[in-house]
Records
---
Amino acid sequence: MSIKIENFTIHEAARLLEEKKISSTELCKAYIERAKKLEPKVKAFLKLDEEDVLSQAKASDDRRAENRKLGQFDGIPLAVKDNITVKGQTCTCASKILQKVVSPYDATVIRKLKANGFVLFGRTNMDEFAMGSSCENSAYQKTANPWNINCVPGGSSGGSAASVSAAEVTAALGSDTGGSIRQPASFCGVVGFKPTYGRISRYGLIAFASSLDQIGPITRDVEDAAILTDVMCGRDSRDATSLPDTNEIFSEDLGGLKDLKGIRIGLPKECFEIEGLDAGVRKSMEKSIQVFKDLGAEMVQVSLPHSKYAVATYYVIATAEASANLARFDGIRYGNRMKADDLLETYLETRGAGFGDEVKRRIILGTFVLSSGYYDAYYTKGQKVRTLIRRDFQDAYRKCDVILTPVSPTTAFKFGEKSDPLQMYLADIFTISTNLAGICGISVPADIHENGLPVGIQLLGPDMGEKQLLRISHIFEKNRAIKEFIPGI
Amino acid sequence: MSKYDIVIGLEVHVQARTNSKMFCSCPNKFGQEPNTMVCPVCMGFPGVMPYPNREAVMKTVMAGLMCGCEIAKFSKFDRKSYFYPDMPKNYQITQYDLPLCGRGGVHIFGKGFSGNDLPDKVIGITRIHLEEDVGKLNHFSGYSGIDYNRAGVPLMEIVSEPDMCSADEAYAYLTALKQIMQYADISDCDMEKGQMRCDVNISLKLAGAKEFGTKIEIKNLNSFRSAHRSIEHEIVRQAEILDNGGRLMQETRGWTDERGETYLLRSKENAHDYRYFPEPDLLPMTFTDSEIGKIKNTLPELPEQKRARFVATLGLTEYDAQVLTQDKTLSDYFDEGAKQAKSPKMLANWIITELLRELNDRNIPFEKNPVPVGHLVELVELVSAGTITGKSAKEVFSELFSGGKTPKQIVAEKGLLQISDDSAIDKFVVLSIEQNPAQVKQYKEGKTTVIQFFVGQVMKLSKGKANPQIVNKLLKEKLDQM
């Protein structure tokens, strides 16, 4: 049977597989064909091993034929950002320093996905070590936005967002430290979900900033995001920061809300005062607010007074943690080691050659803010501001159920447009405070800008507020003016 | 009165004996093939996360309680950053400002290592914190190898106050710490296996001066003896510099056992900036009073308490008690035996004068002692009941070392039952007198000490089995009648 692959979802695939109207092999072949056609332009994948994908697909079809399928999603392909470890595969973080390093173990999320029969469909491009907002910091290739190949897909999970947007795969995994799932999802017109910090185990996610990193799904719709979160979430003894199980099933009764009567949606006044907020993005926001109003939601103004310090705070805390997290890449135990005369030179040469400029910049910054004499002025103060930002959200959630903001001040920008790192950092202004607060947030496609690029909205829920957040996102998705977001590639 | 006051503080590292490493499930095992006790976590592979070992945390809290430390209600791990190949992540997970254990102290007393009496005093403990051990570098010609088996082994750092004034006090403090760790089953403290390591901080100041002198650190001392020697050496070295009007610079020094000298490792200017910050991969630890109370209830007797009990309830001398409590296994051995023995004091004598000497002569560590305590108790009972003579007992004792047989079996096999029957002994007495007229003459002439000669003869004739008291009595009677 033929499927409309441009807009195919996990839940549709699960149904067709169940009804035996399609096989995993057919599904994966269709995606591989499409990827072969589009990849020369999109370059979303760092690695896509056709043989491996088809052998996984065949194994899945065999399981279904023998009545021992691993659940309803057995056989559905999923791309993996190249900073999540899969046993026996390289995991480069789009960095030269990890070019040939093969992971000796599966990340917890990979273990869970495998146990559910998902077909691991290639590794997606990203900003090196997830540091960036455009995917331009990859040491290997520049991924293009499927909506306009002269534009970036966003970052750092740009490869994942572009691959789903271009329908080279059903869905993908990303990681979000300051907006790295939500911003590229918005730029590419797909759904990007960052659950509450600790909902999904980080074991096997190569750390950028440990207190901010969170794995999450990038999907065609909210239902798929809920499905993948259900599969991946839960307490993990290997991640001491993972949250206790709540036994909620996010994909269950997702469409349970008939309207949004009694739901209060918070609009932070600071978000609309941002300098550089694109007029088209503002217009899309207004249209989305109308959708919520029409559904009966009450719009309330809230204030996040410390959000103006979020970017500065983030670049202190995230870089501090990164400077230690990336210290292990020294070529001593694994990875390329440069020949040098002594130990110090070995470190300098290996790390000098292995890391890109942005990574070096952040390691230097992080080292500085932790150094004696500066620690209190930067790191301690940053942690204090972080607490204030967290409190802002707690206060705001007394007045509302979810908070609505833009995802990014602009739509996807052109390659090379933001050559000033500070300009690039400011592109994350709406997403960064979510990670600092640890709460959950989602980016849902909302509109198409007059420049032809998609615009997403961001909905933020309180700690552990995924269930409600996803239901509100789902009803918005069903009621937005534009039903399908399919790029013209 | 010496010219300088000596100020010594120690930093002691002790590996906690646990089933697995601090942050992964690798076995905590010494002496294996290099890099066989490793996994992605303790090798610092990309993407791994630490998961803390509860047993190690509990043992550290126990160590703190044994040393009278305050236990933190809130404690956390931090990252300490520096680049060195023995450290897989190039940062060490340790504790910076909120260690598990706060202030406490350890009692020292008795005779010092040099034979002089120690002052009876408490050496303050500043803190005890928990961290992960690093790997081990081995240098070969032209290259170096790294063994990560040790990387990630739980390691406690015990920091003392600068309360020690001599090498003897430092030695006694180390001994007391080791005893405590062994008693509470926290660590075996085998220094040869690197389970206990010591850094010394030492400074000299003019006698009576208020302000401390310049602190010199001596790193990586791997025996109590080296610690003692290095302190003695450093006192002389620093005094000479000060005597000659020189100034000391804060620095870290190493120690060579061969040359018996310290040497410069690095000066203060080259000190590391470790950039400590809270470990974001681990949650802070909290303890309630009732949790701490529960751990307290499981604590074993302190060596000091055990010593006091041996003296008060088992009738041992202070000296006996000190010898028997110096080693946990030894004290348990005696304790077990004392429960069965009619005279714990006699058992103590046998352990101290015979068993320990014999083990020492044969170079057997106490842990490998082949004599079950029940056998030793039986032997002591045989002697005190008069079943065998003291002389035979020694023979039985050395048989016990070959193992297997009980003293009663050995006595039966060798026919060592003491002869206490007067008529049987009388035969030997008569014989000895008949065979030695010259000595009889001497006795008659008033040289009564010659009776010992006759005792010897009788023992020889009886193959050592005659009851010496009866022999004495009969000899005296016979000779006096002549």
---
Amino acid sequence: MSEVLVVVEATREFGVKKVTLEMLTLARELGSPSAVVLGGPGAAEALAARLGEYGAEKIYAAEGEEIDGYLVAPKATVVADLVKRVQPAAVLLASSQEGKEIAARLAVKLDNGILTDVVALAADGTATQVAFAGSTIVTSKVTRGLPLVTVRPNSVAPTPAAATPAVEQLTVAVTDTDKLAKVVERVAEQKGSRPELTEAGVVVSGGRGVGNADNFKLVEELADLLGGAVGASRAAVDSGFYPHQFQVGQTGKTVSPQLYVALGISGAIQHRAGMQTSKTIVAVNKDGEAPIFELADFGVVGDLFKIVPQAAEEIRKRK
Amino acid sequence: MNIVVLVKQVPDSGADRNLRTDDNTVDRGSANNVINEMDEYAIEEALKIKEAHGGEVTILTMGPDRATESIRKALSMGPDKAVHVVDDALHGSCAVATSKVLAAALGQLNADLVLCGAESTDGRVQVLPHMLAERLGVAALTGARKLTVDGATLTAERQTEEGYEVVTASTPAIVSVWDTINEPRYPSFKGIMAAKKKPVQTLALTDLGVAAGEVGLDGATSAVVEHTKRPPRSAGVKVTDEGSGGVQLVEFLATEKFV
């Protein structure tokens, strides 16, 4: 069975991201999954057990300053060399900024087609994509080269399939041209232990109706009680209530959780573009005519400053 | 500093958007076409750099004839001139082919700095800056929320999931920006009038040395097999809070097994 390369997405603390487990699950339908770990020293060893649990038969590792100290290009060079050597059936990357960027360089290096934001992948490489803010479903194929796809988080349910992967350290042969963009510092800003926005099963978002930055602790409290991530509408971010990396919408993150809770968000197209493929949507808004109610499976018209604390209290009671 | 800003005309993301039923490409004919919003931030950043360090700002657009409207709009913000790559053979080009064409155009423009939006609102693919960097052999600082220019040294804050990275490179380079980087100016009346007289050079594929067969639907490296409209979501239950709205909300969450 041909190998399928899965380029691993992990946190700086060597936590395998859920999208990687989703990719391994998808890869098993196409062939034998081989995980490709690109990162700092020790990354592959730290990640191996988890990758094995989800069916990685083999792990290719490229580690160290040459890989980790520069933006994107060295990683693409390593993966391109690997593709030429092992001739995989497909290459899967996460549909994150970096995943798409590595894929972009691979497409040029290999003169190969590329499909991004893929939510389903058939055994023959036919991909399903969601376009135009979730309004259009597209079936597409790479017509030159192998299926080179980036997979959107929360697309498939990760299922375990135990394997014991052997780790092969790759020779890193990056060029000077690969080292033009240097990473001089990494600053962690995300606080707390909340799940990452695009991967979270539950997202609780606040909008202009939250009123100010301080009130966002109500949103955070409900998110924590539901084990979810916190998001914000563009109006809330533009008003300085919450940092930009949590913005959900056309010019922010696209999320597709099991549950999306919209608090004080009217539901402008800008926002709906980032969340309307969520499985279940719940909304609280004081304006009963707000467009968010057109999408909500359950909506409460009223004052979020009364409703949200009451809901939080009720959840605590039931725990 | 010689700055080129990539500007894409896209269907307005605030309106209904469709793919064409005949060839599965983006329906631009019936859409209200506008400048890709993120590109306005790239234009603003270019103008700020020019104001601080001198130089020239050129808009580069690949698109059909009607993209001229967006080019004039971009020029009305203040750039000096524009280059419009327009050729019927380009219709339906994939990202890989688009990067080939734009790289060829950039090859004629001798830019120290290429600025662009981090993504377009139609495709949201985010691949062009690194494709261009790969083809041109220059640095790519992508996803910038802040950019500092010091002589030939560029330093950017790159937004990441976990925070940000400080990344640095020397010109020539490509930088893509998010909408947190600045607040784009509105074109002034004077700017709008001046834009009408600014030079817009058009380039066809033959001018760029790219063969027609390498681009367009025939030269595409990927293809849309079919597309369907997703059924719109239907509204569910809506209750008005009369004192127990929070409890009702949790009851709903409980029936859906979220609590």
